[in-house]
């Protein structure tokens, strides 16, 4: 499927009478990978002028049947040094955007509004020793960006990626990403031989048997994750956290972090943790 979105600055494009269909923000899909029936990732060309901080999100979309853009917020999953942009997406069966987006192929075009924003950025946290990434489902996307950004490891001694999904298959995108990172010789050169110990991965499932099980909230509140990893309980002097998941998860995990004495911060007021929704609504 190719949208043939006319580029506003292309001299070969005849300007249509109505300006409604001129979309200056077209990018080309370079690869697509389907992970499960409900999850896929894809990469697109990056606008030369796009600068973003790892962890931010942009609006992306496709043209609807009525010729109007259907745009949704998407975390950029690639780090800010990457030549392309990567996204990790849910497939909502009747979702206005993802019912179409799940069919994209290399060579197709999508719309990408180049105005990155978001709270899950390193600058929104105070310096600390350990940085915890807490994600459910597609909420791992901003952390896929931050884990691949060398600055994350310049600022923190240890990064702990806690990712929880219902099934093992839903963890696979994150598992493969972490494994590739750990075996990247360039990163070991930059971050030292102990890089494997500095990037800690703690995946759990809640509806299928796997080596580690349970909700992130329960594993933090019970102290299980600290015991499993040989770490002290979270404390405001050493630990920082970023949260990205469903609204219910965000609310519950925020209460757990506050019980450890951490406070929510923002770009304008850096504190010990920051939160962002992985999607709006109650879930599909
Ligand atoms: C800041 C922000 C960042 C986001 N980043 C991503 C991202 O990186 N990847 C991604 O897949 N989505 C992301 N989303 C959600 C995304 O904006 C869309 O909602 C999603 O693409 C579905 O679009 P849709 O038009 O098909 O369905 P919508 O009409 O948008 O949603 C339909 C239903 O599906 C549920 N839903 C939507 N997205 C998800 C999801 N990711 N996981 C579980 N249930 C969901 C909604 O709660 C709603 O009930 C983000 C949302 C926000 C607010
Ligand atoms: N029918 C299916 O097979 C199927 C499969 C996947 C998704 N879905 C639908 O898709 C929607 C989105 O799915 P999703 O997997 O991205 O999101 P989700 O339902 O929010 O679950 C993602 C993970 O987060 C956990 N979780 C949910 N709420 C939490 C909370 N308040 N505190 C701590 N952990 C919490 C879940 O554990 P729990 O398992 O303990 O809830 C699960 O492991 C869901 O609402 C669901 O209806 C359906």
From TrEMBL:
The molecular function terms of the Gene Ontology recorded here are:
ferredoxin-NADP+ reductase activity; nucleotide binding
Question: What are the protein's UniProt keywords?
Answer: FAD, Flavoprotein, NADP, Nucleotide-binding, Oxidoreductase
Record has Flavoprotein as a keyword = yes
Q: What class of enzyme is it?
A: oxidoreductase
Cofactor section = FAD
Catalytic reaction equation(s): 2 reduced [2Fe-2S]-[ferredoxin] + NADP(+) + H(+) = 2 oxidized [2Fe-2S]-[ferredoxin] + NADPH
Entry's transmembrane regions? none
Q: Which CDD domains match?
A: FNR1
The chain positions of domain FAD-binding FR-type read 22-123
Q: Name one GO biological process term.
A: heme catabolic process
Report the domain of life of the source organism: Bacteria
Task: Please state the Enzyme Commission number of this protein.
Answer: 1.18.1.2
Instruction: Please state which protein family the record places this protein in.
Output: Belongs to the ferredoxin--NADP reductase type 1 family.
Name-wise, this protein is ferredoxin--NADP(+) reductase
Please tell me the species this chain comes from. Paracoccus chinensis
- Phylogenetic placement of the source organism: Bacteria, Pseudomonadati, Pseudomonadota, Alphaproteobacteria, Rhodobacterales
